[in-house]
Amino acid sequence: MTTPPVARDRRPARAPARLGFTEPDAGPRLADLGWWDGDDAVPAAALVVWALARAADPDLALSTVERMRESLGEGWAELEGALRVDQGLRGRLFGVLGGSTALGDHLVSQPERWRLLRTVLAPGRVHDTSRMPSAEDRCRTHLDAVGADPEQDAPVASVTGPAAVELLRLAWRDDVLLLAAADLQSVCEPELPFWPVDAISGQLADVATAGLEAALAVARAEVGAERVAGVRLGVIGMGKCGGRELNYVSDIDVIFLHDGPADMATRLASTMMRVATEAFLEVDANLRPEGRQGQLTRTLDGHVAYYQRWARTWEFQALLKARPVAGDRELGREYCEALAPMVWSAAERDDFVPDVRAMRKRVEEHIRHDVADRELKLGRGGLRDVEFAVQLLQLVHGRGDESLRGPNTLETLAALGEGGYIGRDDAANLAASYRFLRLLEHRVQLQRLRRTHLFPSDDDTAGLRWLARAAKLRADGRRDAVGVLQAEQSRTTVRVRRLHEKLFYRPLLDSVARVAGSDLVLTEESATRRLAALGWSSPSGALKHVAALTAGTSRAARIQRALLPVLLDQLGHTADPDHGLLAYRKVSEALASTPWFLALLRDEGVAADRLMYVLGTSRWVAEMMPRSPEVLRLLGGDGPTADLVAREPDEVAQSLRAAVARHTDPRSAGNVARSLRRVELLRVACADLLGLTDVASVCRALTSVWAAVLQAALEAAIRERAGDSPAPATIAIIGMGRLGGSELGYGSDADVVAVCEPAAGATDQEATTYARSVVESAIAALGAPSPDPALEVDTKLRPEGRSGPLVRTLSSYADYLRRWAQTWECQALLRARPVAGDEDLGRRFTEMIAPYRYPEGGLPDEQATEIRRMKARIDAERLPRGADRALHTKLGTGGLADVEWTVQLLQLQHAAAVPSLRTPSTLDALVALQEADLLTEADAAALTAGWTTATRARGIATLVRGKPTDQLPRSGRELAGIASALGFAEDDPGACIDEYRRITRHARAAVDRVFSAV
């Protein structure tokens, strides 16, 4: 459909059908009104025709104009003349006539009422609610209508019975007419102000409360003024009436309370309900205590007693909207003040949050399936989704923030956004969506002044077209107005549902609800009390951190004040809450200017839980997190595909090398490598502490990042020495020990040996001199002072140890092994694996050492005996003084050394004959030994469990203590942290030690059976 432009300087030159009229006789009928001549509008009436054509339903508007002309008779000339000159009147009258058949009928039956539309609002683009009557003015008008004195404390009407009902109905219709005219005026005259839906809703609520007051005055007269003289009756508005967000057609939810004779109060309340229901809208008192079965009105004490003993969660939620609207206002205020403490403590009830969520689910389940997708109010993504989300947040957070205690949905939503309880974008999107859905709801109700919340069905083309025009939606070039309407409605419901699920099912809500209301306000007294109760070692020191985090009036401070009661509670259940809070303060300060940080903790409950847990459990993480706070973004995921655990080691290594490759200076490259390594170490540590990964994955990830750092540092050192001539040597770095076996821990050094090979035309001396300078430069860059975990490269496993050359040529290395190799050196070569440098040289190195680590014919008996003697000497001499052998993860009973020496002895004996044993990995070798029947299933399982348990315990102990350690503590906070991270109950950390001893004891028994028998 082509929409006519807004024009004042030219006459329309199109037939009525092209303007939007669909009736074939529209032209003659317009001509009969004197507004159309042939194919053109009469010049003097052109603006009238344009406004009429823009109505939501031009044909309906035209038909009603004709009926009004008939009703007005001689008065038609006045109206017709006013329409030609008064833009505001045109917009309001035609807006109403094309948007509501019911209000059109009202104007036909009361045609002189058109004069009311001249003074609703003067032209202008900014709405001004002060131009609308106030709530007090409306009340006066309605009381005057039934002959009651507004100045009396308890007005009594002079008109009763059907006459009073008719007068109230007329007053209500007049008010609704004025509001609808203001609401719809910009549809027909775009230059007139557009009134926001919340302004209209508030005015409708004022009209309803004025009607209630007048109906009460009629009830006093009908029951008998002298009989109710001693009765104080308070009328409490609930629901949309209480929240000043009423629809055009809606129940008026109320609760009654009285002071005085109960029988007279009940008669007065029931009569008031009847009068109001007959006159304008149905008055519903079913939200009262005990619902339909309960007394219609109770005393204040009766209400308080009920809510203290019997009220359910939904009843407190309903009281969020309670406000005095009629009758004895002082009594109404006493009611609200008496129940407020119960409302704002309701969130502390058992299962409060699940109760509210279950209630929303029940509402959805009761929607008819055939209309569920069209339900603007109750359906998924509808108005109730917004209201339930806002009310749940309000009940949870409003205990500590009085700015959230208003009854109005949009005002509370704005306060939630301003206070930082939800994101600004989420608040704005939710508010805009709510306004749009309320606008559609208002329009479909206005059409016939019937209570409905249904969006037109797809086959109701006329209804969709009417609603699109009534909502001022126009074609956008790709779609007609109906298509725009359907797309916008669909997009809005999807957005509302997404935000509803994000806010309504936010995990943090459960945690906040469990915090006592008195502790949500972090005063010095409440914070000190809470910190002491949660077991802080130094409540005064912690209080200083809390004060620093919450000081000021900034949005960040407000969010911190909302978050900290929950975060403190979570920290209080960790092993070291004092250090965790200090780390949280450092992280907060490091990210003070980053908008996503607090939003992540607020919106992703799992992120807040995880952050507090790792900060309060691990000093290692607590020290590193402030230097790499970007890892926080990874804490919000869950499950096996979460970012925290989903990164592949090879992918990490590749990205690290690519980032370092842009730096030619080894020290600069080393700094970048350390920074990227820190992020990866922190990611792995968090996943490890949270139990989201296994031992093998942790070891593989730590090894991969170490190897990538070595490769990056080596490449940077080579680039620094690059000249015009080719490098005199190629270099390979061979990982040994845990690095070679892909079994590194958090505190492990990188054991390596370096080998080189001369380039064409270069001597061995030139090659080794060059290679040594490169390797020394790389090691020095990695070893530069840094607050991060040390990057220590250990080369003592090279031939001749510390006294031997740092780098040998491949041929020199082969010559050394051929002439001087000792048994322990062959054993060490079992874990040799190229990790950096020239891949071809690394491959040839592994081929060269194969005969020494996988000796043909197996290991001679004398060498096996030598290995057993070395192991016995290590057991006797290497264990630190005072260490508990049963709890030493490396050298203790059934620990890493026991398992690894056993596996390596079997590899030296059988790897030549069993190719699957040719692996540097302890776990892979254990699998191969069992498959080759060199270990029984029970022994393989015991050794695997011992190695895995010791490795994980060693890593977790390092994370908890904040420094490398091989010894498990017997008691104290450190043991509590280790036990928690290993999955043991907080109240029984000793079970962790018992389990560790049991597993390692079984491993030692397998070692005793196997190691000596090989």
TrEMBL record:
Annotated region described as Adenylyl transferase, given as residue ranges: 516-1014
Enzyme class (EC, first level): transferase
Keyword annotations from UniProtKB, A to Z: ATP-binding, Ligase, Magnesium, Multifunctional enzyme, Nucleotide-binding, Nucleotidyltransferase, Transferase
InterPro entries to which the protein is assigned, alphabetical: GlnE, GlnE_rpt_dom, NT_sf, PII_UdlTrfase/GS_AdlTrfase
GO biological process, one term: regulation of glutamine family amino acid metabolic process
Region (Disordered): 1-23
Cofactor: Mg(2+)
Positions of the UniProt region annotated as Adenylyl removase: 1-508
Name by which UniProt lists this protein: Bifunctional glutamine synthetase adenylyltransferase/adenylyl-removing enzyme
Organism (species): Actinomycetospora corticicola
Lineage: Bacteria, Bacillati, Actinomycetota, Actinomycetes, Pseudonocardiales
